[in-house]
Amino acid sequence: MSANKKLLVLPGDGIGPEVMREVRRVIDWMEHRRAARFSIDEGLVGGAAIDATGQPCPDATLEAARQADAVLFGSVGGPKWDSLPFEQRPELGILRLRKELGLFANLRPAVVLDPLVDASSLKPDVVRGLDIMIVRESTGGIYFGEPRGIHKDAAGKRVGIDTEVYSEDEIARVARVAFDLARQRRNKVTSTEKANVMQSGRLWRAVVSEVHKAEYADVELEHMYADNAAMQLCSRPKQFDVILGSNLFGDVLSDLAAALTGSLGMLPSATLGAVQPSGKRHALYEPIHGSAPDIAGKGVANPSAQILSFAMLLRISFGMEEDAKLIETAVEKVLGGGLRTADIMQPGMARVSTSV
Ligand code: ATP
Ligand code: MG
């Protein structure tokens, strides 16, 4: 196996290591067909790292992530570490990685696989064949802007304050991610904001339009108020290809889109950083779901989200489109054959364990 790309695997806690084991089986299969053109390193993160080193994201893990071309992340946290003070919690493992690697663009595909069309919260005809990509800005906006906090006003009443701050560079770089993805897909971007009532929304719309005009005139661009986008996602979701949004609106819209697809156990995600002068781009791939302590160790977790996160990694970070597609098709075939983990169980289907 030649090793021109470096993969860092961080299984973490709870069901993380269980579902990651299934990815290792997929990699074994790739090695068997000589398709695995990358080297693999494994590291500690979350509670597992706290137990071993006292830190949720040890420096060695951060350094390995910097060196890697892509990180495949499991999940972190669990009751064992719940009583630790906030600054020592397992969740800080992922937060440190996101911050240090500058991962500003969170990509969440919402795909309805044919065998799971009945698992959607919408009618089958509305979602059959759905394939959208949500791009959420993930390092700026109202979750970080200053001033923030709970203060007392002149009358001694409490006032809660959050501030949405976006610079034009922050908007432009995440817009480029959305336009680049659209070019590989159905060539359409829907940019969402509330330009009617928010100044940051006005700037968002203006900058996205400028980037479009200067660099991506071949891509179709539409602007939509975020509240309208939420309604359209529920009524006519198939009109969308790539949806772009701020940290807040992207968060809300991607959870809504997730509900259209059925199970948490099926959904992958990616978070990308800036393209560096060397051409390298930091990227971390992880399932949407958490460490699911309620089912950890029972061998019943659905490994699909982790496996599909790996497929996304192969496509985006390693340029291995064919292998990504093969893996996605394999997942769909297994479901199509009527095999189900408990989270996506339907009448008449065969219940299987994590490692079918
Ligand atoms: P986090 O805060 O890390 O997102 P959480 O507790 O909010 O964690 P999850 O850990 O994702 O959420 O679990 C939510 C529910 O979904 C649990 O009942 C869990 O068992 C179930 N679940 C999550 N992932 C899977 C999976 N891969 N397969 C089956 N069930 C899952
Ligand atoms: Mg959660």
UniProtKB/TrEMBL annotation:
SUPFAM superfamilies: Isocitrate/Isopropylmalate dehydrogenase-like. NAD(+) binds at residues 78-91, 290-302. Gene3D superfamilies: Isopropylmalate Dehydrogenase (3.40.718.10). SMART domains: Iso_dh. Residues 6-356 form the Isopropylmalate dehydrogenase-like domain. Signal peptide: none annotated. The keyword Cytoplasm applies. Binds 1 Mg(2+) or Mn(2+) ion per subunit. Transmembrane segments: none annotated. It is an enzyme of class 1 (oxidoreductase). Mg(2+) binds at D227, D251, D255. Pathway: Amino-acid biosynthesis; L-leucine biosynthesis; L-leucine from 3-methyl-2-oxobutanoate: step 3/4. It comes from the Bacteria. Its cofactor is Mg(2+); Mn(2+). Substrate binds at R98, R108, R136, D227. Keywords: Amino-acid biosynthesis, Branched-chain amino acid biosynthesis, Cytoplasm, Leucine biosynthesis, Magnesium, Manganese, Metal-binding, NAD, Oxidoreductase. Its EC number is 1.1.1.85. GO terms for biological process: L-leucine biosynthetic process. It catalyses: (2R,3S)-3-isopropylmalate + NAD(+) = 4-methyl-2-oxopentanoate + CO2 + NADH. One of its GO terms (cellular component) is cytosol. One of its GO terms (molecular function) is magnesium ion binding. Belongs to the isocitrate and isopropylmalate dehydrogenases family. LeuB type 1 subfamily. Catalyzes the oxidation of 3-carboxy-2-hydroxy-4-methylpentanoate (3-isopropylmalate) to 3-carboxy-4-methyl-2-oxopentanoate. The product decarboxylates to 4-methyl-2 oxopentanoate. PANTHER family: 3-ISOPROPYLMALATE DEHYDROGENASE. Homodimer. This is 3-isopropylmalate dehydrogenase.
